[in-house]
C-alpha cells in the first residue's frame, strides 16, 4: 500500500497567512532560484482568467500587492520546510499582452 505521506506538497503564505484555497488551486507553477551570491528569486504563475465568468481575477488581490511578505514551503504531507522568505517586489499580468 502506498504511503499517504509520500505525496509532494507546497504552501504559500502571505504575511504569515496561507493563501486562500480558491487562489491555491489557481497556482500553476512556482519557481525558486537560490544563489550563493546575490539574492534569491521566486516566480509564481497564477491563472488569472475566470473562464466561467470570462473575466480576470486575482489582478487586484491584496495577497499579490507589492511589499507583502511571502513564504514558500515545500516537502511532503505533514513535513514542509520553508525554502524562501522574502518581499513581493512586483506583480506582472501577462493576460493583458
Coarse structural class:
mainly beta
Strand order of the largest sheet: 2-1-7-8
Give, in order, the helices and strands: EEHEEEEEE
Report the major sheet: 4 strands, antiparallel
Work out the strand percent. Answer: 35-45%
Q: Which percent bin holds the helix content?
A: under 10%
Distance between the termini: 47 Å
Number of E-state strands: 8
Mean pLDDT: 86
Radius of gyration, Cα only, in angstroms? 15 Å
pLDDT < 50 stretches: none
Count of separate DSSP helical elements: 1
The shape, in one word, is globular
Structure write-up:
By secondary structure, the protein is mainly beta. It has one helix spanning 21-24; strands at 8-14, 17-18, 27-33, 41-46, 49-50, 55-56, 69-76, 79-87. The strands form 3 sheets. It has a 4-stranded antiparallel sheet, with no helix packed on it. Strand 3 and strand 4 (41-46) form a beta hairpin. The longest helix has 4 residues, at 21-24. The radius of gyration is 15 Å and the shape is globular. The mean pLDDT is 86.
